[in-house]
Structure formats: structure tokens, C-alpha cells
Write a structure and sequence with these properties.
Low-confidence stretches: none
Mean pLDDT: 91
Length: about 80
């Protein structure tokens, strides 16, 4: 079973959303990009992740990082 990353103390979902919007990528586009990385996720799941109500698996986070061309530091950073 793959480890899940809890979003309790981090702003992972918010960070994913911000980075995605800055890159000009729509949710449906990101889901398609993830599927090309063999990570199958629905748009509804992405919405829940961005809202912080769905845990992210390690493989999902890696694929999101790659698709958004960002770093783990940017994805996991806390609000300033």
C-alpha cells in the first residue's frame, strides 16, 4: 500500500492550485497530463486535493511535481 501525505499542517492543495493557475493549466489539463504519467485521477479527486480534503499519494505528488514543472519545496511550503 502506497503512503499517503496528509494535508493537516501543510498547504499542499493550495500550493498545487496556485502553481497550476500561474502555469495557466486547467484542472482537466492537469488530469490528462497525470494520466500520461500513468497516474489515474479524476478531476473530482484533483478538486478535493486542491481543497485539502483528500490525501495525496507519493506517486501522485511526484507526477504533479513533474507535470507542473516545480519542486517538492514549492509544493510543500508553508504560507508566509
Amino acid at each position: 500500500m502506497e503512503q499517503k501525505i496528509k494535508q493537516d499542517d501543510i498547504h499542499l492543495g493550495e500550493n498545487i492550485r496556485k502553481i497550476r493557475l500561474v502555469a495557466g493549466i486547467k484542472q482537466t489539463e492537469l488530469v490528462t497530463m497525470l494520466q500520461l504519467h500513468n497516474v489515474y485521477m479524476t478531476r473530482e479527486t484533483l478538486v478535493k486535493i486542491e481543497r485539502g480534503i483528500h490525501h495525496v499519494s507519493v506517486s501522485q505528488l511526484r507526477a504533479i511535481r513533474d507535470c507542473l514543472n516545480t519542486t517538492y519545496d514549492e509544493l510543500l511550503k508553508e504560507e508566509q
